[in-house]
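Notes to self after the Tuesday call (sharing in case useful).
The group wants a holo model before anyone commits to mutagenesis around the pocket. I volunteered. Ligand is iron/sulfur cluster. Logging inputs and output together so the record is complete.
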Amino acid sequence: MCPEPDSSPSGPAPGFLDRAALRGDCANCFGLCCVALPFAASADFAVTKAAGQPCVNLTTDFRCGIHARLREQGFAGCTIFDCFGAGQRVSQATFGGMDWRNPRVARRMFEVFVVMRRLHELLWYVAEALTLPAARPLHQELRRALVEIEQLARGDADSLIGLDVAALRQRINPLLLRTSELVRARASHSGSPGKRPKSYRGADLAGARLAGADLRGADLRGACLIAADLTGADLRMADLIGADLRDAKLNGADLTDVLFLTQPQLDAAVGDATTRIPHALERPAHWPRVPSPVAQTAQRTAVSGASPDRLTRSGRPAHDHPAARSRRRSSPGETPPTS
Ligand code: SF4
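Result:
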């Protein structure tokens, strides 16, 4: 699936730098996310199922029987999930085309899938860091990290199951933090001179009113932005790694150069045709294709709108939001924050 890594850290960027390969390819997967992962009946899932139990909607050819109607049928959670390409790799490479209906491999395959998804998510972040000119001083270390993760992902099932991914993430995280600092420092130069980008790392901003806010270069790592109103906000060069964006309003927001945003995060938010998204991500299919009137108004007022110094909270309603009541998603969309 991926070309051979260049084991020389100073050599050319490895071929799997192409993040397009780090997206789910359901045609080459045995529906692993629909079997391996548990989910609980909620606003996101119409039913409860245990890990290792096939979803009732999974067909015998590993397709989703309600793919075109997931949201209408109460399975919105499935529309905000991406395996980062782990599914096809486990199906076709690690297990060589064997599927989970073989009882000898099922349990191990599910365990490997969970590990592989986390490795591929890490690959996504490191590959993104390697695309950033501001992070050039770190490119050699980043290449070395990318090669290491890729080589681990090529391991056999037993070595993958035994892998301590949490420890690996902890080791890679400082590199991503340094990348973030280098990039966000540029935001302070391009914004008001002498003004440092704000840090809201891990902050509880559920339901915060941030329409039109200047959040360029802000540190929003691991922030809870559930149902926050970011209409028309300027998020360029903000670090959103691990931020919870479920139902955050992004109509008219500018996320073009945002850092470490993933497709599942974007899919979980609410945007429209006026939301500016990073080129590596796709506009979620369930977003309206026409701009909302609210977004158009926010765009007109964005420059003089809210600033990080004027954060206001909408209070109880956001915390009553179903997603806010469950900060940790018990669904296939779960992605542990990297902070
Ligand atoms: S409803 Fe969701 S979990 Fe079930 S088969 Fe369809 S995509 Fe998979």
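Two things stood out.
The radius of gyration is 20 Å.
The chain has ten helices and two strands.
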